[in-house]
Structures are given as C-alpha cells and as structure tokens.
Amino acid sequence: MTDKKTARPDSVPGEQQSKRPGHQSDMTVQPASTHPGHVGTGKLRGKVALITGGDSGIGRAVAVAFAREGADIAISYLEEHEDAKTTAEMVEKEGQQCIVIPGDLGQEDVCQAVMAQVIGTYAKLDILVNNAAEQHPQDTLAAITTEQLERTFRSNIFSMFFMSKAALPHLKQGSIIINTTSVTAYKGSPQLLDYSSTKGAIVAFTRSLSLNLAKNNIRVNAVAPGPIWTPLIPSTFPKDKVEQFGKDVPMGRPGQPEEVAMSYVFLASDDSSYISGQTLHPNGGTVVNG
C-alpha cells in the first residue's frame, strides 16, 4: 500500500505561462517545497546560506530545508517579487532570517552587489548555492540566435563564475559551494542545445573549482536534477509536452522540489565531509555516468 504522506503525482497538468522563467504563484498545481519526512536536527545551525534562484522551485525548497536545519538565508532572484516574498515567509516560519535580493546575475556587478548585501546583513557567508538558470527550447541549432546563446550562458554559467568569485573573499575553511547542473549534462537534449551545454560546463566548473579550493578546505559539489516540477516547465514548454513531463524516466513521474532539496542539505552539511568535486543525481532513476 502506498503511504499517502509520501505519494507524489504521476503527472502534472498541461498548464502554460507566457513569461520566462515563470512564477510559482501562477501555477495551477503548486510544486511541493517541504519534504514531509524532514525533521531538522541542526545540521546547519549558525550557518548563513545564499541561494540564487531561491524564489521558487528547487531554490525555494532548498531555502526551506536549510532553514529547518538552522541556517539563516539570503535568496537572489530576477524579478519574481511575490514568489520571493513567499519563500522568505516560509523560511521565517522555520524560525530563521531571510533577505531577498532581486537582480540579473548574468552581470558581474550585480553579483558583487548581492554579495555586499549578504555580508552587510549577516557579516559572513558559509554556503553558496548557485542555482539560478533559464532555458529556451529550439528545434534546430540554426534557430538559436546569438542573443539567446549569450543570454543562456550568462544566466546559467557566467553567473556561477561571477557569484563564486564574489563569495570567495568571504568563505573560510569548511565553507561550501553547491552548483545546480542537470541530467541533460549527461544524456543531452535535442531541443535544449544551449541549456544542456551550460549544464555540462557546470559539471566541469564544479570539478575544477573543487580541485582549486581543496587546499583551502572549501568543498564544491553539484546536484543534477532530472524532470522536476517547477515554474520553468510551464513557462518553457507547450501544453502537450508539459502533460508528458517526467513520464519517460524509470519512476514514471516528475519529481518535486522537496525531493531534490535533501541532496543539497547533505552536501551542505558535515555528513558529506569527505566529498568534493562530485555530483548527486535525483533524477527519477535515470542511470548516467556521473
């Protein structure tokens, strides 16, 4: 018998949004942001975490999970103000502080400004989660314009370089960087050529930065989610594809953000103290060489 507390939907509705990267507040079926079995044990007590793209989806679930483990939170986001406010309220219900900072992280000066606000508020940073991303499906390589290519790379990988660079002066021994990549980095995607290319770059960035910072005892890892129900999906794909979303993985269903968040808790905590340069794969059972 399936436990009703842990049962997740086998499919999602064919809803759409006209603007990317999408707003969680506008979704008909809300993604699940809080894992029903997560009981905080203080794994991150006293820590400060910055989560990019923390307004919704995976970023929101990570913010709530970190807060439940005792961390104070800063989230950066593009312009989804209502979603960011909701995330902050959810963090505060866990008894932790949360600041929200809008801005385009594809610009280095914005990343520097975000970091200045985090340090100005909390006076330190222990955990950086580089999670912000966008995608723009195209059927052919020829359809990808120079503008789209640059935009995707700026949002998805340039931002990680910029934000990590801004964070490094404030990180100390034992600090953590976690980057969000994707299953598409390993298995490819015929309609997401530029997106999957950035996600492959993130894997290489994670491995290389982990080697670069090992001498400083700063661990760098990544998480490569599979099909997860977030605002990115209805704002990206047509209704028929949204209705089929996640059905092609071995588990036969899309994942929820709360099912991914615990991977970040593990990598952010001392539970993973001997792990760096690696990638976790919450992807519904797809076997990849990671």
General description of the model:
The protein is α/β, with parallel strands linked by helices and 290 residues long. 36% of the residues lie in helices and 11% in strands. It is built from 8 helices and 7 strands; from the N terminus they run βαβαβαβαβααβααβ. The chain has helices at residues 57-68, 81-93, 108-122, 146-167, 184-187, 193-213, 239-243, 257-268; strands at residues 48-52, 72-77, 98-102, 127-130, 176-180, 219-223, 279-280. Strand 4 (127-130), helix 4 and strand 5 (176-180) form a beta-alpha-beta unit. Helix 1 packs parallel to helix 2 and helix 3 (108-122) runs parallel beside helix 4. It is globular and about 45 Å long.
Low-confidence stretches: 1-5
The geometry reads as: globular
Give the strand content.
5-15%
Q: Main beta sheet, described?
A: 7 strands, parallel
- From N to C, what is the helix and strand string? EHEHEHEHEHHEHHE
Structural class: alpha/beta
Number of strands: 7
Amino- and carboxy-terminal Cα gap: 33 Å
Based on CA atoms alone, the radius of gyration comes out at 18 Å
Determine the fraction of residues in helical runs and give it as a percent range: 25-40%
Tally of alpha and pi helices: 8
- Largest sheet, spatial ordering of strands: 3-2-1-4-5-6-7
Mean model confidence by pLDDT = 91
